[in-house]
Amino acid sequence: MTEVKASGGTITGGGGLQFVLHVVRGRWFSLFASFLIMAGAGATYLFGTYSQEIKNSLGYDQTTLVLLGFFKDFGANVGVLSGLIAEVSPTWFVLLVGAAMNFTGYFMIWFSVSGKISNPKVWQMCIYICLGANSQNFANTGALVTSVRNFPESRGNMIGLLKGFTGLSGAIMTQLYLAVYGNDAQSLILLIAWLPAALSVVFVYTIREMKVIRQPNQQTVFYHCLLISIVLALFLMAMTLIEKAIPFSHAAYVVTATVSCAFLFSPLLVFIREELVIWRQMKQQSVGPAYTIAEDHENDPPVMVEKEMNQIPQVPKEINNSKMTSCFSNIFFEKPARGEDYTILQALLSTDMLILFLATLCGLGSSLTAVDNMGQIGGSLGYPETTVKSFVSLLSIWNFFGRIFSGFVSESLLVRYKFPRTLMMTLVLLLSCIGLLMIAFPFSGSVYVASIIIGFSFGAQLPLLFTIISELFGLKYYSTLFNCGQLASPLGSYILNVKVTGPLYDREALRDLQKKGLTRASVKELTCMGNQCYRLAFIILASVTFFGAMASLILVARTRQFYRGDIYKKFRGT
């Protein structure tokens, strides 16, 4: 009979099947599935890699390409629909809708670019890319919101890890497409179409809200995952730099992709070990069977979940039996205290949310503009195509470091020193200004450093935004509120990218044509070369970001007393 050894005990063949079920139906495996789904939910960050292929294949100018970038950002950040759907439907439905949208949107883009269908109109391409990008909100809502509710006391670490894997997804999928398809930007679009959709379908019934279990070594498990993710990020960064310097064979790309996948699946070993410890404790304490039937949060058929050990009291979900009042009567005058459960309207119309909206509009709007134009920035400064792809990959990797830094470091500073997360956001926005100015005034190697700074600061803003919303306005309507909170991002991108950066770039490109004695009609593609192409635009972006940092200081002052208290007290039932 097969035995699985553990320190202090064994699992025999009969109990082995029960243990496998215990793992698959547990919180930790659900978190592992969330890691994989989030690792495939960052296709929007690869726009800088395949945007030139769209531009060349369909004959677009920079303004049209920027318009596509806006609709990509619009779809990626307008997640209110996914949040509202999640309020009234189970997680598996949210994930399936997202998978269908992802496959449909990106597959139509691939059809168009590869010439398998006639060239679509610009508005059709805008719909395709908006549909595909919007699918990542369904992955976010299904995986991230569920994981935060399953681990409420570690939400900073949780959001940092999950959004960190999303930040790495660009570099991971780059390695995969090089291994599977070779250096073909069109095939990258095809990979983006089927891989994230397949992940959501495979794990569709795994991710669900479960009863919360307090475990004393929970933070240790998260730090193990952090270490694995950092090693993965360093490996991807090293491979990105080596691939730039040394030509890789197809076999070498296959080895690199295999090692990347091995690191990506490593957290499963940590989670199995953790579940094994829980399993042994339950057996030793004779607390009954490994599972008990519990009502699933989403009113699905009863599912097997781990029996509670030192269970944390859940945040009450029922409305108090006190006298019901009109929804609108308490929006402005009878709001809950910070940290309690706000209604959707109370949160959206609060001063705190409005300030957060303004800071997000300035910060994420500028960062998204820089991310979307990174490929063209490298081209305008005369870098070869392989180097431009390195900029995009470095931006993706440092996006990851920014996310885990803001998640883990802000959580540690908050717990130990009561350092407000809102102040961390101010510091991140100021850092972003430096990266933007390095593109406005480039020097030798400055784009490398700027891509690192912009990627880091862009990544750091998202976990801070999502965590601050959960802390200030509660978890009851978090599915909708965190999606509403990022609505400022596409608005900022539209203003700063479509209305500012794109036209300024085209103006400089037309000046170059005039110097050569050419007109717009004489060239298929409008291209600008030189330091002046993005100078004025990025000076404006840096100024706007600085204004957002100053606005966020107001929120720091307003929430100072809140963060000095014990914001997780209610989850400990004390």
UniProtKB/TrEMBL annotation:
Q: Which UniProt keywords apply?
A: Membrane, Transmembrane, Transmembrane helix
Where are the membrane-spanning stretches? 28-51, 63-86, 92-113, 159-182, 188-208, 220-242, 248-272, 353-371, 422-441, 447-469, 536-557
Q: How does it sit in the membrane?
A: Multi-pass membrane protein
Where the record annotates domain NFD4 C-terminal, the positions are 355-563
Which InterPro entries does the record associate with it? MFS_trans_sf, NFD4_C, Nodulin-like
| One family name in Pfam for this protein | NFD4_C
> What is one cellular component GO term in this UniProt entry?
membrane
Q: Which residues form the Nodulin-like domain?
A: 27-271
Localization per record: Membrane
Q: Which family does it belong to?
A: Belongs to the major facilitator superfamily. Phosphate:H(+) symporter (TC 2.A.1.9) family.
Q: Know the name of this protein?
A: Nodulin-like domain-containing protein
